[in-house]
Each structure stands twice: as C-alpha cells, then as structure tokens.
Amino acid sequence: MRNTAREAALNIIFAQQFNTDDILSLKKKIFKQFALSEEDMLFSADLVATVEEHYDELITSIENACHHYRADRINPMDKSILLIAMAEISYFEEIPPVVSVSEAAGLARKYSTDTSADFVNGVLAGVR
To answer: Which of 5, 22, 64, 75 has its CA 20 to 30 A from that of 11?
Structure first.
C-alpha cells in the first residue's frame, strides 16, 4: 500500500540528512525491510528521486510556508515528512493534495513528536 511506500521513502530521506554514503545499498535494505510490492517500490523510489532532484526548490517552498523559518531549524523528521508531502503536492498530480497532507500528518503522528502532526498540517495548509 502507498502508505507503507511513503514510510520507506521517509526512512530513506531521513537517513540522507545524516549520511550520504552508499545510498543505493540503504535504499535496497529499506525496501526489503518494508517488504514492498513491486508497484510500491516503484512509487517509493520515484518519491525519493523527486525529493532528491527538487530538494532545493522543495526546501525553499517549506521555508516560505513556514514564513521564512529556516529549514535547518526544523526537526529533521518533520523536515523529511514535509519534503515528501511537498514533492507529492508539487509533482504527483494524480495524488490529491488533501491525501498528501493527511498522509504527512499520519507519518508525523507515528514517527515524530506530539506536536509534529499539527506543525506539519499547519505548514502544508499554506501551500494547498
């Protein structure tokens, strides 16, 4: 399911903030760990590639939505979640933005702090 594919992508994008060595091996391990179907693996890989390709633009969009709050001050997990959601909203036209926002809030509830879901939802509310 796509929510599992998003979780795999989140793990990869989060890890890339701290370590850029042997990313290909990391991706393979995470895809195996999440036991993704072929379709979900392709979606997750496409999501990660989109974030990598448009990283600077996505970070600028996040900072603008945070009213020029610098991205390096955002919790790394929240930043990873926002990158995924912003990539979906900007580049995956087949996914309604409301779905991307809902999925991002769910990831924040599962993987981040008690206030992260509200923070992520608030940031993304400004870009819909």
So the answer is: 64
